[in-house]
Structures are given as C-alpha cells and as structure tokens.
Amino acid sequence: MKFFQTLILTLLCACLVYFGFIYVSQIDQVKKTASPHEAEKDNDTALAAEETRTTKNTDSSHTSLKGSKKAMDVILYNQMDAPRLYNGCEVTSLAMLLHYSGYEQVTKNALAKEIKRVPLNYENGLKGDPHDGFVGDMENGPGLGVYHEPIYQLAKKYAGDQVVDLTGKPVKKAIYQSLEKGYPVWVITTSNFDKTNNIETWNTPNGKIDVSFNVHSVVITGYDKEHVYLNNPYGEKNQQVDRDQFEDSWKQMGSQAIIIKA
Length: 262
Description:
Mean pLDDT is 84; it is low at 21-66. This protein has helices at 2-65, 89-100, 108-114, 148-159, 171-180, 243-252; strands at 117-118, 134-135, 163-165, 185-190, 200-204, 207-211, 215-223, 227-232, 236-242, 257-260. Strand 8 (227-232) and strand 9 (236-242) form a beta hairpin. It has a domain at 88-260: Cysteine proteinases (Cathepsin B, Chain A). Helix content is 44%, strand content 19%. It is an alpha+beta fold. The chain is built from six helices and ten strands; from the N terminus they run αααββαβαββββββαβ. It comes from Bacillus pumilus (Bacillus mesentericus).
C-alpha cells in the first residue's frame, strides 16, 4: 500500500511539473509574439526622445547664435613686420580697416608717416596729449599712442564721409550694431583686453588726462554672447577674447570706436 501511495504522489508531482512547463512555454510564446510590437514601441520612444534631444540642441544652438556676428575676414597686418612700428598698433589697425573698405594700397607705414605727432615730453615739463597726435616715437619708442581724433582725421583723407566716429556711444551701438551691419570696428583697448591698474595722470597742453602704457588698438571683427573676436596687430587674426573683460577695458580707455561705412 505504501508503495502505491508513493507512486501516486510521484505521478501527481510529475503531472504538476509537466503542466507547469506547458503553461510557462505558452506565456513565453505570447511574449515572443508580442515582442516585435514592443520593440517597435521602444524604437518609437527612443526616436521621439532623440528628436526631443535634437530639437533642444537645435534650439540651444539658435539661442547661442542670437545677438552674435560671425568674425569677418579682415586682413591681418602685424605692426612688428618690417618696417617695424614698435608702438604703431593704432595705424596698423586703421590700415586693416581701410583695406576691408576697399583701400587696399594703404600701408601701415604710409599711415605712420601721415599721422600727426606730438612729443612725449615737452621742454616745459608737460606731456604729450594722444588726443592731439601720436605721442612719442612710434617706430622704436619710447612712445604712448594716439587716440581716436587724429585717427579719424587720417581715415577721412582716404574714405571721406564714409568714416564715422562712434566714440562715446554705448557699446551696443558703437560696436555690436556696427558688426551686425558688416562694419569692422577700430577701437582702443588694453594690451591684455582687461581693465588695467597701470593708470597715470599727465599734465598736457590741454589739461590733465589719464593715460596708460598698457593702451592698445585692435579691429573688432565679430562677437557672440561670451566673446569678441578681433584682429590683433601683434599678429593674431580673429583672436577670441572674453566679452565682459573687453568691454571693461574699452570703456576704461574712453569708449573709442571708428567704422568705415561701405
């Protein structure tokens, strides 16, 4: 009797295992049958997610381009190229601006000969005023530089009424709107494109002025939300510079800007 009971229990267990296996196989088959559709849904979800990411990236790219101007292809002149102008960044930058505006034969050295000059030191102890002309020795030093008024007058000898002096205007109007219209901008800044602590007060024939031997001139060729791009007459084309720092240095040096309209 015990033997038959054990046999019956064994058969029952075997049946349960068999039917359980059949059930699991059917469930698995259902899953396999449904999986192509599920995969398609997964693919659709992935594609939708990718489209969303792409759209976001595209929107972000467009956003980053708003309020920007791709750097223009303005010729680069190096003030240190022979014949060297050791302190000639202002006329070298003006030569770039004139070339872009169609005055291609004008050289930095020709402009250096034409720019008005004043002494670095007068016999009476006064200092030269860069608003009057280039102060000191442009070719070899010592020298300071020249501001927008003499540069404006020199540019007008070539481009006449096309030359516009935007000095004193807000940075948006003087620089960024000019760039958006396709006009590179001649500016006065500092040699490291940031505010400087190297400021001196000079007594000149026109009164006291603040000057810095860190003064520098470049041509602004483009900008975006974080940078300005400039032709540096020390030898770098479309150099990328922090926009906020540049604006600080430009304002510190008197917000000087000149363009030549086409």
